[in-house]
Design a protein that fits this description.
Elements (H helix, E strand, L loop, with lengths): L11 H18 L5 H7 L8 H23 L2 H18 L6 H11 L1 H17 L5 H30 L1 H22 L28 H27 L6 H25 L1 H21 L3 H29 L5 H27 L6 H21 L6 H13 L1
Length: 404
C-alpha cells in the first residue's frame, strides 16, 4: 500500500489510527502522577525511581521482537497486542498487594509502548505518500501528545473524586477503546503476512537492529538523553525556584511541541530531514543552556517553550528519516532500532543526570550544561557528517525499491 508522491493522507482510516493512538497514550500516562503515592501506600517509597525505569527497560528490550513481528505477522496485530497489554495491566494494578508484585507488573506494562508505537509508525509509512511522510508523522504525534498531556489531568481528576481504583479502571477503558478501533475499523497494510508461531520470537543477531538507520538512531539517542534528564531533575528544579505546580513546565513544552509539529513535518517533506534536524538540535542545546541559567519560574518556562519547539521539530522528522533510510521490507526493524535508541537515551539521561545533580541544588546548572553539550554533539554530527549528503538521494533510492 506504499504510495510514491501523490495522494491523500487525511483519510478516515488515518484519523481512526490517530484516535486509537490518543486513547492508547492517555491510557498508560494517566496513571503516572498517581503511581508514586500508590507505591508508597504499599510500602515502596524507596522504589519510586523504578516506576519509569522498569517500564522503559521492558519497552527497550521488547523492540526487536515488535520490529520482527511488525514485519511478519502484520502491523495491526502488533498494535492490538500493545493496547491489550495496557488493558490487562490497568486492571491488575488494584490487585497487587506487595512492592515486588507492583514492580513486576510495572516491568511487564512496558510491553505496551515497546509494541504499539513501532507498528503504528510502520502502518503510517505504509498508508501515506512518501513526500508527505513527515507531515503524517507530525499529525499522528500530535494526537499522541494530546493523549500524553490530557491523560495525567484526567487521571488526577478521577483519582481525586472517585479514587485511584476507578482511575485504573478508566485507564483500562481508554486502552480498550484503542483496541476496538484497531479491530473494528483498520485494514492491514503488510502485503505478505505470516501466521504467528513461537519461532518468530527467536531473534538472531542481525534481527536486533537495522544498520541502515544508524544515523537517525544516533541523533535520536543524543536528543533523548536530554528528555531523560528533564524527567529526572526538573521536578526538583521547579521546587528550588518556587514553582508550586511542577506540571506547568511539562504543559508548556507539550503545548509548544504540538504547535510546531505539522509545520515541521511539511517543511521537512519539502526541504529534507537533516536541515530541520540541525535546527531542532541547535534549539535543544539552547534550551538546555537556558534551563541551566534559569533563576526564576518565568525563565524556566521560557526555556520549556524553546525545548518544546525543538522536540516538536525533532520527533516527526527523525521518525520520517528513519523510514527513509530503512528498507520497506524491514520497516518494523528500522523503527524498532530508532525506538531502542530513544529508550536508551531516556534511561541513560535519567541515570547520569541524577548522578551529576546528586540531590544538590549547586549542580543544577552543571547538569544541564552537560545536557547541552550532548545535544551539541548531535548538531555537530548533522553538520559535518550528514551535512554533505543529499537527502533526495535517499528519496530516489527508496522510490526505486518500491517500484521493484
Amino acid at each position: 500500500m506504499d504510495q510514491l508522491t501523490n495522494g491523500k493522507i487525511y483519510t478516515f482510516q488515518f484519523f481512526l489510527l490517530c484516535l486509537s493512538n490518543a486513547f492508547f497514550s492517555a491510557s498508560f500516562n494517566m496513571m503516572i502522577p498517581e503511581l508514586p503515592a500508590y507505591l508508597t501506600s504499599l510500602g515502596g517509597a524507596d522504589y519510586k525511581g523504578y516506576i519509569i525505569g522498569l517500564f522503559t527497560l521492558m519497552a527497550g528490550l521488547s523492540r526487536p521482537f515488535s520490529g520482527k513481528l511488525t514485519d511478519t505477522v502484520g502491523r495491526i496485530p502488533v498494535m492490538i497486542f500493545g493496547s491489550v497489554v495496557c488493558v490487562v495491566c490497568s486492571l491488575l494494578y488494584p490487585l497487587v498487594s506487595s512492592v515486588a508484585a507492583f514492580l513486576l507488573l510495572r516491568f511487564f506494562h512496558g510491553f505496551s509502548t515497546g509494541f504499539k508505537p513501532t507498528a503504528t509508525s510502520a502502518y503510517v509509512a505504509d498508508l501515506v505518500p512518501f513526500n508527505r511522510r513527515a507531515e503524517a508523522m507530525g499529525m499522528i504525534g500530535l494526537f499522541s501528545t494530546v493523549g500524553l498531556s490530557a491523560g495525567p489531568a484526567i487521571g488526577g481528576f478521577v483519582a481525586s473524586i472517585w479514587g485511584i481504583m476507578v482511575m485504573f479502571q478508566l485507564s483500562a477503558v481508554f486502552a480498550l477503546l484503542s483496541v476496538v478501533i484497531l479491530v473494528g475499523a483498520m485494514k492491514e497494510t503488510l502485503p505478505v503476512k505470516q501466521r504467528f508461531s513461537l519461532n518468530l520470537l527467536k531473534i538472531s543477531r542481525n534481527e536486533i537492529v537495522e544498520p541502515a538507520v544508524w544515523p537517525a538512531a544516533f541523533v535520536t539517542f543524543l536528543t533523548y538523553v536530554c528528555y531523560g534528564a528533564l524527567l529526572t531533575v526538573i521536578p526538583d528544579l521547579c521546587d528550588h525556584l518556587g514553582m508550586k505546580n511542577k506540571g506547568v513546565f511539562f504543559t508548556v513544552f507539550t503545548a509548544s511541541s504540538i504547535a510546531i509539529r505539522l509545520f515541521a513535518g511539511k517543511t521537512s517533506d519539502k526541504y529534507g530531514r537533516v536541515p530541520l534536524l540541525k535546527i531542532s538540535t541547535a534549539l535543544m542545546a539552547v534550551s538546555m543552556v537556558m534551563i541551566a541559567m534559569a533563576t526564576t519560574p518565568i525563565a524556566l518556562l521560557v526555556a520549556a517553550l524553546v525545548y518544546g519547539v525543538s522536540l516538536g521539530i525533532n520527533s516527526p522528522v527523525v521518525t520520517a528519516w528513519t523510514i527513509d533510510l530503512g528498507q520497506p521490507e524491514h520497516r518494523g526493524r528500522a523503527l524498532a532500532t530508532m525506538y531502542i535508541a530513544l529508550e536508551a537515551g531516556i534511561g541513560l539521561g535519567a541515570y547520569f543526570s541524577a548522578k551529576i545533580y546528586h540531590n544538590n541544588a549547586a549542580y543544577f546548572a552543571t547538569t544541564f550544561y552537560v545536557m547541552a553539550f550532548v545535544t551539541v554533539l548531535a548538531t555537530v554530527y548533522l553538520l559535518f557528517v550528514q551535512g554533505n549528503r543529499n537527502w533526495k538521494t535517499t528519496v530516489k533510492a527508496s522510490m526505486v525499491r518500491k517500484k521493484d
